Amino acid sequence: MQNFDERKSSGALNGKVALITGGASGIGRATALLFAREGAAVAVVDVNESEGQAVVQTIIDEGGQAIFVRGDVTRAEDCQLAVRQTVEKLGKLDILFNNAGIIQRASVVETSEEEWDRVMATNVKSVFLLSKCVIPIMVKAGGGVIINTASGWGLVGGRNAAAYCSSKGAVVLLTKAMALDHGAQNIRVNCICPGDTDTPMLRNEAQQLGKPEEQFLAESARRPLQRVGSPEEIAQAALYLASDASSFVTGIALVVDGGGLAGSG
Hints:
Layout: E1 17-21, H1 26-37, E2 41-46, H2 49-61, E3 66-70, H3 76-90, E4 95-98, H4 113-141, E5 144-149, H5 162-182, E6 187-194, H6 200-209, H7 213-220, H8 231-242, E7 253-256
Parallel strand pairs: 1-2, 1-4, 2-3, 4-5, 5-6, 6-7
Helix pairs in contact: 1-2, 1-8, 3-4, 4-5
């Protein structure tokens, strides 16, 4: 597999401004770097200031434009601040990537009310809050793109992940609902359903389940392509959905999982 950093930019996002939540690590970080290399100015939103600032500095060092906004995406005021600072500092907002998310590996019985609320707030409420802020801006501008990170487990169930599966299923249908509501305003809304991807969240799953990380990753690789995904591969899917290459695509749940769901259903 070719090193993604070695691929030449196509300029697919030249002149665009993107806001990416959960942009300090994993899929969000990889997408922020890719979008910047493809010509977009990027607002990185995360609660992790040190890692978020590091992503921004990497983009700036490579000649791109980026800002960091520290924000908790479960809080309306933080979402409003992130959107406001993006528009004020970068001039507009063309692309929203609702990527921030967490996982709780537990059954309904084992999940506390506080854990349930935290997963739903981070994974679903954040999509609602940020979209609510951004859509009026996109309408005024004549259109835009919203991408949400769902999951393969938003399409099929998974064991010991009741809150997570519920939240990602909600993201899939929220995506479709927004696509219906705002298509006439030239706003495309899609979601990505990644399979297991080598991110800090995947390794956190291993810890929650009490399994050695390497054993858990090996088990996660049991799919037709015989490996887990990389954050850069999911970022490529986000780039497709953000760019004009997908200009007639809205309301879809794009599965990027190495064939993991191919035999499901």
